[in-house]
């Protein structure tokens, strides 16, 4: 087991977390991932966005937010040299506990088609692929 320390993400972690995302394969970053966007996300979801820290450095991160009905988990990333130590599992379980405490029972996530390793990880942890019988639509507000 690692001795990484899990705690809620703060906006002061932004640069370290963003650097981790940039260095992580399978991560799709969009303009909402800028500092202002993440500040808003953390303000709305202070207990379900987490970092793993080791000796003052961010070595893992996870974002999760909900709308009062359904949660969405995003951007799970573990620094290469800290993988295989159970950190991702701990981040996910801590996040699920935080969702439970907020009364949320379902959580979705998206895995890119070109990230079979990520998909295998989620399948291993018991996450189920939903049959897609709908389109995802979006507009800029
Ligand atoms: C996928 C990722 C988050 C795993 O992080 P990690 O900290 O190494 O994972 P853990 O050590 O917590 O692994 C927990 C369990 O999952 C298993 N596991 C880890 N990666 C796996 C994979 N790609 N496929 C199948 N099982 C995997 C581990 O063997 C471990 O099993 P155990 O508890 O029975 O020993 C990490 O490799 C990563 O950051 N990948 C790039 C980003 C990414 O793909 N994110 C998810 C996509 S949305």
What does this structure look like?
The chain has 141 residues and is of the alpha+beta class. The chain has a single domain (5-124), classed as Gcn5-related N-acetyltransferase (GNAT) (Aminopeptidase, 3-Layer(aba) Sandwich). It contains four helices and five strands, in the order βααβββαβα. It has helices spanning 14-22, 35-44, 87-101, 116-124; strands at 5-8, 50-54, 57-66, 71-78, 107-109. Strands 1-2-3-4-5 form a five-stranded mixed β-sheet. The protein starts with a strand and ends in a 17-residue tail after the last helix. The structure holds coenzyme A.
Give me the secondary-structure topology.
Blueprint: E1 5-8, H1 14-22, H2 35-44, E2 50-54, E3 57-66, E4 71-78, H3 87-101, E5 107-109, H4 116-124
Parallel strand pairs: 4-5
Antiparallel strand pairs: 1-2, 2-3, 3-4
Bound molecules: coenzyme A.
């Amino acid at each position: 087991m690692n001795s990484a320390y899990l705690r809620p993400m703060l906006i002061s972690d932004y640069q370290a977390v963003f650097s981790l995302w940039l260095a992580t394969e399978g991560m799709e970053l969009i303009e909402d991932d800028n500092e202002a966007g993440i500040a808003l996300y953390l303000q709305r979801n202070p207990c379900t966005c987490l970092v793993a820290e080791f000796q003052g450095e961010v070595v893992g991160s996870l974002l999760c937010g909900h709308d009062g009905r359904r949660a969405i988990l995003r951007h799970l990333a573990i620094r290469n040299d800290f993988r295989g130590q159970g950190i991702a599992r701990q981040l996910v379980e801590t996040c699920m506990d935080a969702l439970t405490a907020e009364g949320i029972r379902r959580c979705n996530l998206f895995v890119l088609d070109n990230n079979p390793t990520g998909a295998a990880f989620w399948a291993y942890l018991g996450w189920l692929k939903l049959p897609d019988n709908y389109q995802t639509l979006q507009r800029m507000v």
